[in-house]
Amino acid sequence: MTNNDINHHIQWDSTTDEPFLPVPGFPTLRLTPYREGEQADMVELCNHPLVGRYSYLRPYPYDLSHAQWMYDNIINKNLVPAVSTLRSLRESPLQPNTLPPLVTYPLSVLRYSPSYAISTTSNSNSQSTSTPTINSQSTSISAPQSTSTSTSNPQSDSTSIAPSSKSDLSSLGLKDGAFMGTINIFPAERDPSSDKSIPIPRQDQVWMVAYDIFPILQGRGIGSAVLKVFLEEWCEWMNIRIRAEAQRDNIPSSRILAKAGFVHSKDIVKTWPEEKGGGDRLVGVWDWAPTRQ
């Protein structure tokens, strides 16, 4: 498969002036960049006990200083420039067989956007060209606002909700533009003495994916849909390999990974931070590769 063969669905919101990916099956959800002033939303998400306890690296409790560090050192240094690169690709599409000049994933925020619901079917039909492009879309989305959540497993992909109502989020009381979760990647190879990333050539790099969704969205298949669009519309385009880890007792997350096409490669034992419960835990390692590798 060549770069030209990828059915690339990145859209562009001309109102907020940002790229996004629609989430298949959920016309009111999209993946967008971080926006200014969302530190409090990050704190709320990361401090939920059913989210924070599953993260091995992230501080817990998670406070505003941690969120600000993320903005200063990751978002503003890496993700904002990546959005600028996507903006430039709108004007100058890539030549055939050329990989995008990007080394990170900028569409990291799962956002509720009912003011511009995109039909997955019409989106697929409108993208008939074989050349990757970034399409301009006009929307009326309002400024992002915080939202409160209820308790449930954030990574659950259960079927407790009737199929006909899973995609309808209007009864949840969410606000237009609400921050509903995150999906981020970072290099999988790390120096055990410093826990810093080890520089590796792009073609040999494996990226670790970490995703968190507010528990209020559990039971609808949203986790699977987010992973699906991330893998098929970004990782295939980038031609990058992805790795994920899930505690073996976190059955819903393991099911989501298997459904998304990950293959369970091995189990490892990790000593969990004391503030997250401590103890040695069995963790499954899951790998995914694009079709061009």
Structural description of this entry:
The protein is of the alpha+beta class. It has one domain (3-241). The protein is 25% helix and 24% strand. The chain has six helices and twelve strands. The strands form two sheets. It has a ten-stranded mixed β-sheet with strand order 5-1-2-3-4-6-9-10-12-11, sandwiched between helices. Helix 1 packs across helix 3 (64-91). The protein is globular and about 50 Å long. Mean pLDDT is 81; it is low at 1-7, 118-133 and 136-154.
Quick recap of the structure?
GO terms for molecular function: acyltransferase activity, transferring groups other than amino-acyl groups. Helices cover 25% and strands 24% of the residues.
The largest sheet is: 10 strands, mixed
**Please, what is the average pLDDT?**
81
Briefly note the structural class of the backbone: alpha+beta
Cα Rg: 18 Å
β-strand percent reads 15-25%
Helix-strand string: EEEHHHEHEEEEEHEHEE
The order of strands across the largest sheet is 5-1-2-3-4-6-9-10-12-11
Question: What is the helix tally?
Answer: 6
In helices, the fraction of residues equals 25-40%
Q: How far apart lie the N and C ends?
A: 9 Å
InterPro entries: Acyl_CoA_acyltransferase, GNAT_dom, N-acetyltransferase
Region (Disordered): 120-169
GO molecular function: acyltransferase activity, transferring groups other than amino-acyl groups
Organism: Naematelia encephala
